Protein 1
Amino acid sequence: MLLSAILLLCTLSAPASADTLEPTVSEPFDDDTHIALVQTFLDNNNIDSSDWSEYNYAEVISSNGNESSALCLTTTEDDIVKKDIILMVGEDKDGNYTPIDIQNTLEGVSTLSGSSADYPPESWDGRYIIHGTAVYNLRYNSSGISFYQPTGCYFTYKKINSSVTVSYISVKYICDGIVYTYPGFSNQNYEEVFTIQVARNNPAANTMYSKTQNYSSSKVLMTHSGSPMVGNFLTFNATVNGTSDDYTVVI
């Protein structure tokens, strides 16, 4: 059932059922060890963060049925929210490309007195790191309920292994919700799927590809209730060494 839902998502470019995915998102990191390791990792991979960013883990569902975790970085400035998802992609025991479980590997890194070990460790036999970002305006009504106005999406990637040939990457930010007016927050009683896609053939490593596509300034999307499909998603499709794989993260 789970794999069927993910394959349907990749085929129709719509998010799989939130009820089916049952994503798990950890609480933001609150210990210095995790934060130090993550900040070093981000710095080494030219990924911007700030003192008010929050780090946590988000579940990744792959088209091959594997489940793992990605690093999620949330940065909020006024009403603008940026959700960065970082996937570390390696190979499973059968030689298939699959995201590395960042939560398990990060929590397994030991620290020495006064300094943190490198993350990922130099022994990691990964293939590439892909970094996708969703950007949206977050609006609140008088009751404190949050609503979304998507504005953009971008990605970049970094080769870890020189033998990797990346011939295609697509990243989609999908916001599926019930439509309300803005700023009046009047329920319009219908559901809308708003998608921002950034795709590139033969993308260059360490290069950002982006798309700005603002949702209507007079409407917002509410993703807390409605059909089982509502939610915010980042979906990744990558063709590497001739093999295409899809990954979905609920953000």
Protein 2
Amino acid sequence: MKLILGILILLFSSLNDGTFSVKEKLQRTPYAELPFECIRRAPWGKPGYAITKEEYEHLPIFTYANLGLTERNDYDEEVTIFRKFASGFDNYCIVALEIGVSDPGKQLLVTDDNNGKLIDFLEAGIYDGGIENRLCLKQWRIDTNRKIMVTWIKALTGKEWNITKDFSSIQGQRIDCHYQIDKNGKFYKVKEITYQAKNYPMSYLRSDKNLWEGDESF
């Protein structure tokens, strides 16, 4: 399945990458409404332009191989524009990028100026699998005032386990990281909320429930 999806994405990318610059791709990408929650079943935005290696050379374009997020996969990844948001300022926009041919995957939130040049970035989503039955370790949401919350289930056990393989459960800890994007397009961490560690079955991490909807205790 990974090979088929990879071929389809490469074919799609070849149709829309070579003609336009990053600036033009962003101009042709419609704005998504705010606030926005990147739920597990969030559909792809359109037209979904791919970004080339030369255009993302300053970004961490890799996916994770293990639940502890300490090992990187060693294959080349595709990068696609997932969403674009208005910042409320006239000097930059906010862009969500999807990284990964199929599974596992990652999402970055980046700020680009009016010429398509990168200002700053934030790792916001980490997952394995497609929209159906997706295992999430990080999820994000953004409000109308450029405030972002990234919810992370940090693995305390099973850190070395392959992110694509089945497991029964892990001991984990939920961390909510709150960020603010300033008028210059820079991300700043405002606060971090750490919850008590608990047991997370794989069925929970692959359920329809978003990570910020958990019943963890402080």
Protein 3
Amino acid sequence: MNENLLSTTITVESIEDKGKSIKLKCSDRKSYSFWKTKQDGNNTSMYEQFTNMAIQAGTTVNISYKVEEFTLPDGKQAHANKVIWFREAGGTPLVEKPVYEAKNAPTGQSNEQFGFRLAIHGMVNGLLATGVSPRNTIELLPDLWLLEKAIEEKLSKPADMTIAEAKIEQNKKEIEEIGESIPF
């Protein structure tokens, strides 16, 4: 299997629902596909992007994809272009799942879990924005998880909040002193 990610801009000519997957036939005379559901029956992030972006025939989007090679039952080699990411045309396709703004945590997930995931997504977006490759970003996910866990532990301790509050009070006093020394 070829693990290299490729990026291109496509214009969808037709969409074929294959049941568990979607196949896009595009103006570049290639087909691209992705899974609709995970093994647990929930929608994949690709399918959610596809529906949220309202992709239909005539839509132009950027994609990141990989070429998966396989052997047919007759022994011939074949390949499939598997979409990893959709992005509005004109933007740079990414590999990681995007951060969508949401008022509440998704059903079945606590607000803490949702907040934790948002924090991780924010760190991922920061890494990608600074030029860290998607592959290296994926390798850093365990470290990001540990970092967010440490941050959460540190912020939940009352002593740390007391230190922060003390610094705020100190800054307020300094601002008042400066204000008193200014003649009007």
